[in-house]
Amino acid sequence: PALVETPDGQTSWMIARYDDVVQALSHPGLSSAFMPGGMLNHTDPPEHTRQRKPIARAFSTRRVEALRPRIQQITDELLDTWETEEEVDVIGTFAYPLPIAVICELLGVPAQDRNLVRTLSSELIAPETMVDAYGRFAVYVQNLLDTKEPGDDVITELRDEPNLVANLVLLITAGHETTVQLIGNGLLALLRDPAMKRRLIDDPILIPDAVEELLRFDGPFPTGLIRVATSDVVIGGVTIPKSSQVMISLGAANRDPSRFADPDVLQLGRNAHVAFGHGIHYCVGARLARIEGEIAFRTLLRRFPELALAAEPEWRESFIRGLASFRVRPK
Ligand code: HEM
Q: Is 75:59 a contact under the CB 8 Å cutoff?
């Protein structure tokens, strides 16, 4: 751990080594409850344990595995539009619409609201619009809860849970903003590594493994995790004093050469990346994101084996690392 100055002139501890990150994410003295609003990811036990249980149940392996055929169908429909195009933007035509359709259907958010929740979510993760967007997002969700007919969906299942509005804002946003970047950042990495791309085309059974490696290599959440020390805490032999802010870099841990040899190279068969976090806050949607990534990459590579970059992509400004524009030639 090292003390660093943040862009707003404050100081914070930065944790970057793999072993230190894992230790920090399992340490009860580092609290997630530093923000008002009480979203699941900003609570500590015992409140966290209570809120997480029904949400984790709603995203059970059985439920998300059952979505495979529907995810495949949405993927195929979106990629049909690529068949006749010379050049497309991956983010706008595929990487966004797929996860947003999936999370909205799963939760029970009406299809006609997808553009609205997409806008609210992207405002929620941009520093300058965050606070105002949360208020509007919460009003939208409350209104949905007041008017929605019960159905076979997660909102209906969770409707009597406390803190539902905040947690639905979290589920809608976390449920797509990150998976978009798994698809975007991951596909870019594959296009930049033609040998790996070829291997996956020839042997699609390797694709789940590749999804893990792409999450390690350029995951959506490289720096965004924050904790506050509720007592003096020792991480990697360094004492972090009580009340300090701590930033945990999953991206650095995932490229720590003492854990992953040759970390800047894609290599199948590695495991134990921390792109979904670690410990009690480990991502509730990890299985869903993996399935979406697997279906997305398998279908992209099967249908468009000649897929190639059409222009140098542009990164956007956000703590969720992703591309603003990403143009490719499908054929
Ligand atoms: C938590 C990453 C997809 C819902 C987390 C955390 C990470 C993460 C790093 C831990 C946060 C912390 O410790 O403070 C990712 C990545 C994804 C992804 C990289 C896609 C590639 C999803 C999806 C959902 C989701 C699809 C929707 C169901 C959540 C929730 C939490 C969470 C609700 C909070 C869990 C808790 O605090 O106990 N995610 N996520 N995520 N994620 Fe994901």
A: no
